[in-house]
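Box S2. Input/output pair 1.
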Amino acid sequence: MHLIKDNSIVVTKNQYTAEEFIQKKIDLLKDEVEPFYAVDLEDVCNKHIRWITLMPRVKPHYAVKCNDDINVIKLLAYLGAGFDCASKGEIKKVMDLGASADRIIYANPCKQSSYIRYAQEVGVETMTFDNEQELMKIKQIYPNAKLVLRIVTDDSNAVCRFSMKFGADMNTARKLLDKAQEIDMRIIGVSFHCGSGQMTSKAFVDAIQNARMIMNYGNKLGFDMHLLDIGGGFPGNTGTEDYFAEISAAVNQALEEHFPDDGHIKIIAEPGRYYVASAYALATNVIALREMVDSETGNLKYMYYINDGVYGSFNCVLYDHYVPEPHVLTKGDLNEKYTTSIWGPTCDGLDCINKSIQIPKLNIGDWILWKNMGAYTISAAVQFNGLPYGKPIYFMPKHFWDSVKAAFQSIPRKHQVDTCIMRLNSCDCSNEVEDDMLPWIPEDFIEEAAVVTSQ
């Protein structure tokens, strides 16, 4: 029997859910109790197919900041997606993995000067701005850039709001276009972002209408306004499929009304969580517990400490307003539930994942599954107290591997990867896959499988 290695792609003969895959992994563990992700790359592919089916006019540019996992970037590049990058590091990573400069929008309205120079050096021409100072800075550094004016939106119904930091109002947007004309800068379109986790399709509809007005004004000034970027905010958790379909229908209708397909307008978006949220399931282990008696009710209650926390994979609790839901993987009594709090492993009292939740009694060594953990988790995780956060193990059925394996082959690189900026959660993969490389061979789980390990 062989254990699979972390940061591996496991190709299985049969189809497995993340929970089934995690359970098989756990069954093989002895002393290894580090947290890990089961990453369903086929789920990412299915999201892409759904996107281009429901919004065929809108080309997705994956928001790298949401999850900078190398294998996700490789797969989406292979599928033809573009990329929304917010820094030199993200541009470099995407281009090192084979994406060309014309598939990147530098969608950060506040850019460091040296990063603008880097974008110019590597040929990334399209970038956003939302104020005169940024416009003048780009003029000085990169006068041939193709600029996209970001306008403000009503993101009051979003989980994470951006309009208090980014975006020009309608009057300011017109003045910025006047200034751009005066200094001979090239404006090619308008962008907006309705907020991460947007909860209403109306925000997209209103923003599209406003974008049309600004682009009309730009066209009157003589600009060739041919790019509309409708940003991100699209839902990606399991169970949000109908809501995404609703947003797609509303966006399509608004585009048809304000941007009819004349062959000239290019429309893009910046989905992040949409692609990766449901693809990542996190497995954590109970490393300690405290049993207490509630002073008011006299009932037992428990504190559980697990091996990942808010400084690691659960930073989404602090930064993304996410409320993760635990699914216990235990063979004990699941009917009787107790008031419980769940804590991370660090020495900080802030490291609390759930303050009060009703779950069955757990023991040290039991495992907890956390679904929908792909968005804004490992991309912002750190090893505070020297404690590791979850590392990914990728799994997919062989029929899917056969259709996408070219995405994970080694590629010629014009720009050498700077290892100092490559995150620990990201892994590169070798270009050789052999069907006889079995990740495990328990009697009840014989797999025709392959493992692709990091170079």
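Box S3. Input/output pair 2.
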Amino acid sequence: MNGPHNSSVNPAEITRPNWPVLILAFVAVVLDGYDTIALGLSVPALSDDWGVDPAHFTPALSLTSLGVALGYIAVGRLTARFGCRNVVLAAVVVFTLGSLLTAWAGGIIELSVLRFVTGFGLGAVMPAAVAQATALNPARFRQQIAVFVTTGISLGALIAGILGAALIRWFDWPSVFIVGAIASAALLPMLWIWLPDERAVTGVQHAPATAKHDASVARLFDPQVRGRTILLWAFSFLIFSVYYIFSSWLPTLLTSYGFSTGLAPLGSAALGVGSIIGAGVLMVAALRFRMTSVLAGTSVVAIAFLVLSTYLGADKAMLLIVFGGVGLGLQAGMIGQAAVAVTLYPQRTAATGVGWTSSMGRLGSVVGPIVGGALIGMGLATSTIVLIACIPVAVAAVIVVALGRTARPRPTKVAGGRPAPVGVS
């Protein structure tokens, strides 16, 4: 079942992980994560190169997130019509070309347009990759698979932060986008050869009318899930908002602590390291606790590290460690919301559920950089901005606790007869 031409199998008969699909889906999302923060970590160097204030890049940062949000919204219908494999391929082509052209952008307007188009491709990749990976792997592992694939965003951010600092120092900011485009272009033939069409593999084909109905956002408001959909969307919006304040502006904020423009991208790397650790914590903790309880805990962790950062002054090493803790708490929430969504809705609605929930997050990621830019433009101290960011995280923690209390446990059995965590139970 590793290739598009194999005979079909009943989804219920899939009992072992399909590693080629998992790895390809994961790598596609890694490149998504890399490209998503590439502009944010390039802003200090771009500001110096173009001679404009960093706050002037707010439209480009926000339009990137807007394009991603629209990609998330569209992905359900796109996968229903063309299949997850074809959507992943097309989306990677879009953000490969968009990233390459960004390297030759000559002004704010041109940069903003290119990032908007690139963002649409970035937005379509993650939900389609998660939906395909869960469709072609054992159903009892859907939540863990969703966490694993979505973790690619964290690894991509980590790679961008570490590699971006060196690239900017040695070759200037365009190299960040050129390297991302080369990596994406190298992935394309692998996706074409080894990423199967999930409809051909499982033999599950639906009439266009049925597929359109399953992909409709109205399915997310069926009576049994309506309240949880609203709470999940609110949680996603708030967590994404705060994370993207820091992923977009942390390199700029760190310059106020004495970081050079060459070292400031290490702040993004610190967020990425924390994000990877947070994803690991999420996967392990979800085996024993409700996902909503885990997300409430990681939100509290984010608040604790945010408050701690205000007491560190100009201690560069400790600041990077603490913002790694912030990344742990916030990115766990961003990954966890996709894991909740993928198990909250039927498999045929999974891409729509993940896409729309993530789009609410991306709406927050549009608002976040705008708010961050406004706060920086007001001349507020970095410590004040950090404390303000604690407020929406605290609200998100309350919301996810409420989400857990509205959940109806629906345990399923795994090998050995143990109940597996399902959805938000």
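Caption for Box S3: DSSP finds 14 helices and two strands in the chain. The first strand starts at residue 412 and ends at 413.
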